[in-house]
Amino acid sequence: MNTEEMQKDFLAKQNELRDRIETVDRFDPGSVKLVAGVDLAYWGQGDDEYAVCCIVVIGSDTHNVVEKKQYSGKIEVPYMPGFLAFRELPLILKTVELLETGPDIFIFDGNGYLHPRHMGIATHASFYLNKPTIGIAKTYFRVDKKTDYTEPGNDAGSYTDIVIDGEVYGRALRTHKDVKPVFVSVGNFVSLDTACALAMKLTDRESHIPIPTRLADLETHIAREALKSAGV
User: Fold this and answer.
1) Please, what is the Cα angle at 52 between 191 and 69, to 5 degrees?
2) What's the CA gap between 228 and 160, in Å, rounded?
3) Domain presence at residue 20
4) End-to-end Cα spacing for the chain
5) Which three-class secondary structure state does DSSP give residue 105?
6) How many domains does the chain have?
7) Which pLDDT tens digit goes with each residue over 45-95?
8) If pLDDT is split at 50, 70 and 90, which confidence band does 146 have?
9) Angle between helices 3-18 and 121-129 (to 10 degrees)
10) Within a domain: 42
11) What is the pTM of this model?
12) Exposure string for 4-22, b = 16+ CB within 10 A, e = fewer
């Protein structure tokens, strides 16, 4: 299948799934005990591209690490803007299979509803995980070239909605005073208010991003260097 055929197939799949997104809490936010952070890191080897997915599960109240898993492999889908999930999902699902715990919610270092078709990696993955998901990105993704975000106030917890054509796609959220905002969007089966509340609860003084994705990000860098050194 060439790139054009892939894009046509991927677009049809995104449009099919989009109608099933639920931007409301399908769970009791107070019942969340285990939260998984998901991130990937890439590298090239010859003409091939590889990636490692790392998942770190923490206790939502204690912030202690409960478990961490990783899975690496060759990337089979070329990069195409708007279709990142099709590159990353195979490795994510393989890593999830390794988990011994059952996270109540997954947080992705990326976007969910903040996507041209509301189908960022956090949203797309939810249909295969059958769990609530949230996308929290460190950098702003412009869904269209016209729309920027408005800086939130400088107090921790301040936010501004990202509104495109009259619809709220996500929020710019300030997790600490005097730090850059993060960009929160619903993945699926969760409301934006709950997503932001969890982002605040799970962020400590070490960083402006939530602990689960920060730890997953650190793990990907360690794993990538080890795999590269081993020639994997």
Assistant:
1) 70
2) 40
3) no
4) 26
5) strand
6) 1
7) 888 999 999 999 999 999 999 999 999 999 999 999 999 999 999 999 999
8) confident
9) 70
10) yes
11) 0.96
12) eeebeebeebbeebeeebe
Q: Are 9 and 189 in contact (CB under 8 A)?
A: no
CA distance 45 to 49: 6
Domain span at residue 148 reads 27-229
> Is residue 199 a part of any domain in this protein?
yes
| pLDDT, tens only, 87-131 | 999 999 999 999 999 999 999 999 999 999 999 999 999 999 999
Is 36 a member of any domain? yes
What CA–CA distances, in Å, run from 106 to 6, 10, 49, 190? 27, 23, 26, 11
> Which residues make Cβ contacts (< 8 Å) with residue 163, sequence separation at least 6?
147, 169
Domain harbouring 83, CATH code = 3.30.2170.10
The pLDDT value given to residue 66: 98
